[in-house]
Amino acid sequence: MSSLVDDICELLDSYNGRDKVVRLACYACKLYGCVQGEKAWQAAGSRLSSARLMLRLFDDIPMIRHTYNYGFGRHESTKIAAFLGVLANMVDQVFLPVEKACWLNEVGVLKLSTVTADRLEILSTALWAASLYISLIQTIRSIRHSWWSRDCLSADDACEARKNLDTRLMIQAVTAGKLCLDITHAVSCLPSGCLWGEKIGGTKVSAIATVSSVIGIALYFARKRLLK
Predict the structure, then answer these.
(1) Is the pLDDT of residue 113 over 70?
(2) Using CA atoms, how far apart are residues 57 and 102, in angstroms rounded to an integer?
(3) Which of 23, 15, 6 lies closest to 216, judged by CA?
(4) Residue 160 has pLDDT above 80, yes or no
(5) Which one of 74, 94, 129, 144 has the lowest number of neighbouring Cβ atoms within 10 Å?
(6) CA–CA dist 75, 86 (Å, integer)
(7) Each residue of 14-32: pLDDT tens digit?
(8) Phi and psi angles of residue 197, each rounded to the nearest 5 degrees, phi first
(9) 34 with 44: CB under 8 angstroms?
(10) At what angle do helices 202-226 and 2-13 cross, to 10 degrees?
């Protein structure tokens, strides 16, 4: 029991961990509100979503540092991996100020026209979806590399090495599944006519996001316990 409480406290003590918990609470409230037709629960979910946005307003400097430290990905094993890493950083770097501009317009600090505001919202969602898609490609490449490494192990190799690779493959596969759910969620927020934008109902979107959030927390504990 003490170990479980310690793990939960450690999760909540970190920025990323707390964001995962708030995300789960956000979409769980929205899902319950949609299923039960309770506007108050949906409003609670929206407030929690706004809380996550407030915290992201201050992510610019850490993101700039990360992008600077990554550079052109010279430490990556292949040029494709480096290109994907640089591209992911560029997309995330642009996403933050665009999302900030949307929020400033929403609260009335910026006075943007309705057309401009709508375009910024679409751009923000498109960047979110693009970031997820790049992450999915990177994860699939990692799975392929892990499979290659596993096949290269001879029968004389330690069983522990094969076991560790199997664990990584399992976690990477689950991560890929989570990213597919997140991409489905992100694209569904795009306007009608953009792939399946607005074709998935609010209840289904909330369910998809809730499942993704549960998987995200499960992956956090799996990485913590299995990849030591």
Answers:
(1) yes
(2) 11
(3) 23
(4) no
(5) 74
(6) 12
(7) 999 999 999 999 999 999 9
(8) -55, 130
(9) no
(10) 110
